[in-house]
Design a protein that fits this description.
Blueprint: H1 2-16, H2 19-45, E1 50-56, E2 71-76, H3 80-88, E3 94-98, E4 110-113, H4 119-140, H5 145-150, E5 160-162, E6 168-170, H6 173-207, H7 210-214, H8 220-256, H9 266-270, H10 279-290, H11 295-304, H12 308-336, H13 344-366, H14 371-378, H15 383-390, H16 397-425, H17 435-443
Parallel strand pairs: 1-2, 1-3
Antiparallel strand pairs: 3-4, 5-6
Length: about 450
């Protein structure tokens, strides 16, 4: 055990002292925090007004345009040619021309701009005119537009998750979906990133003949386990630093910019200690408060419903389990060949399962409790990615225990298999290795 610990310490220290480790340790949290912070800043910086001049030849629609979502409408009494000249002089960003035939032929409507037209402004103009055209057609048919509008009922169902202990929590399936996909993808990246480091390390020592000196002091199994665990500790250390720094960066940014993260939960709108609101009053109060809510605030509110201690502990376990399973196979491949080009024929069958799990993630995310998701989350070769996708949606403890047990059994089996290949292959030079040859090495007593 002492020799294995020495190898682990050597692998760990030699990698954390590299400049690439330090760079990625700093860049990683910045990128992860940037996923939350950058969209918030861009949304805030993009809140400048977009001015649209309205030239209404019909004199019917100009009263319908109201400023909304940073789109400012400016009614003009001039012709479209004069309006275009003013636009080129920088008086406004775009010109909306409503010709006389607009009602009979909506295709004659035009929105002019010197640059690419603002998408939100175009969408708002289309919605306003569509409503006005519909109102005119209803009036022409003798139908009261107000009566028809009163039948419109927007439906926004609040999702509630009932936990095993009976506790009710607000559920945000969209955020669970995004978090699951990100977690699964990170597991995939980490397994390949650090697993390939094991392969290259083994191959480098074998090519340089350093391994001949090392195995004179330690057994091949100790060398393989030491290298796998040492590299794995590097990955685990880097991940924990990323988590702490990411939470710190986002937390500091949130405290420094509280207005960018404003959000009022529904329970604060509907439940008061001094008054009992009617249905109409509740809707009006909710609409009034939601005007001040931000998308970033809604995102953080949704993230707060996620059990992050469980997520982080699950991520650590499935990273370690998945890494040990695949790193042992990568080490076996590195020991069996003489150069990196020869690794390709053996890498394909090893990497297909985890690539398959990444491809299947889109089907799992649409039905995280279905049979496909269940089986892929308990098979050791696919469970690290698929189970991390499912966990934000809530996984029964029985399935989680089964997945954990099978993953432990899986990496123990692959480690045993890899060790039998490693002990022979690490000292084998100049021979073209085939699958038949690997099978002979496994069967050697």
């Amino acid at each position: 055990m002492g020799k294995t610990a020495t190898i682990i310490r050597r692998e760990f220290l030699s990698r954390i002292k590299k400049r690439s480790f330090l760079v990625m340790t700093i860049i990683g949290p910045l990128l992860m925090a940037g996923i939350v912070i950058v969209p918030v800043l861009l949304a805030n910086w993009s809140d400048s007004d977009y001015s649209v001049a309205v030239v209404d030849d019909t004199s019917i629609f100009h009263q319908a345009f109201r400023d909304k979502d940073n789109v400012v409408f400016i009614p003009l009494g001039t012709g479209v040619d004069e309006a275009l000249e003013m636009m080129h002089d920088g008086r406004f960003d775009a010109v909306l021309h409503i010709p006389q035939a607009a009602f009979q032929a909506p295709s004659t409507l035009r929105l002019f701009s010197s640059r690419s037209v603002n998408f939100n402004a175009k969408l708002l103009v289309e919605n306003i005119l569509r409503q006005e055209f519909e109102s005119l057609k209803l009036a022409a048919a003798g139908i009261d537009a107000k009566t028809l509008k009163s039948t419109e009922t927007p439906v926004n169902i609040q999702a509630i998750r009932i936990k095993d202990d009976g506790e009710l929590i607000t559920d945000y399936p969209e955020i669970s979906m995004g978090l699951g996909l990100v977690s699964g993808f990170l597991i995939y990246i980490f397994i390949f990133l650090f697993g390939s480091q094991v392969l290259r390390g083994v191959l480098e020592e074998k090519t340089n003949r350093i391994v001949e000196i090392i195995v004179s002091s330690v057994r091949p199994f100790q060398l393989m386990i030491g290298k796998i665990l040492g590299v794995g500790l590097v990955g685990l250390t880097q991940f924990l630093i990323w988590v702490m720094l990411t939470f710190a960066i986002v937390g500091i940014f949130q405290m420094a910019n509280p207005d960018l993260f404003k959000f009022t939960p529904d329970e604060r709108v509907f439940v008061t200690s001094t008054q009992l609101l009617s249905a109409e009053e509740m809707e009006l109060q909710k609409e009034a408060i939601q005007q001040y809510d931000t998308m970033a605030g809604q995102l953080l509110e949704g993230l707060s419903a996620i059990n992050f201690p469980v997520m982080i502990l699950s991520f650590i376990f499935y990273f370690i389990g998945g890494y040990l399973l695949y790193a042992a196979l990568f080490a076996a491949i590195g020991s069996a060949v003489d150069n990196e080009a020869d690794t390709q024929q053996f890498m394909l069958p090893v990497t297909v399962p985890i690539l398959f799990s990444l491809i299947m993630s889109q089907f799992v995310i649409s039905n995280p409790s279905g049979p496909v998701a269940f089986w892929l989350s308990i098979i050791p070769f696919t469970s690290p990615v698929i189970m991390m996708i499912r966990i934000p949606f809530g996984v029964p403890y029985g399935e989680l225990v089964l997945s954990v047990t099978l993953l432990i059994a899986g990496f123990m089996a692959t480690t045993w298999l890899a060790a039998r290949i490693y002990r022979t292959g690490i000292l084998m030079y100049g021979k073209k290795i085939t699958y038949a040859e690997l099978w002979k090495w496994i069967r050697y007593s």
